[in-house]
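Hi there, hope your week has been kind to you so far. Thanks so much in advance, here it is:
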Amino acid sequence: MKMKLMFACLVAFGLTACEKDPDMNQLDADFVVYTDHASNVDFGTYATYFIPDSILNAGDVKATYWDDENALAIIHAVEKQMELKGYVRTDKKEDADLGLQLSYLAQANQIVTGGYADYSFGWWNPGFWGSGWGGWYYPYPVVYTFNTNALIIEMVDISQKEIEENNLKIPVIWYAVASGFQYGNGRINMRLLIDGVNQAFRQADYITRN
């Protein structure tokens, strides 16, 4: 069995079983995007927002800030979506109704398998290879390593000045995360991240000033 084929099975999200000859074009499928919001919030009451010119990189031991041209491209995608929703960006945090924070997380994932004594185990369903054949097992350890990344968008209500004055926790009123496989090709990664931003706002039709 080729390792390439086994690897394709591991990263094919949402599939219950792998095809014998997987479509390699599906390896750059879109990120999974999850969104949620506070149900008691009327997003039409807000008008302005503030967003930093950098993205919090939470993948290191110590948090750093991502502020190169790629980070700015992602921030611009958020700004464009907010503009389409009817909101105006302001450079003065104290004048904004909403605050947007972007965070990026990248991590390496490792799966160790092998040494199974149960022949019914296998990536394919028993009988896939023909009648009389079950699954298979590895009599030796096999290690798979793959990288994932996620972009997190948090929208907070900073219009209530009494929260700041009393040093209270700022309420998060909308949350989005776009996550998936991280590729060695930077252009593919950037396309998936920006597509994830656009999909997050498409899912959030309740965010509108119009």
Residues 1-24, 117-122 have pLDDT under 50 and may be disordered. Residues 104 and 151 are 5 Å apart (CA to CA).
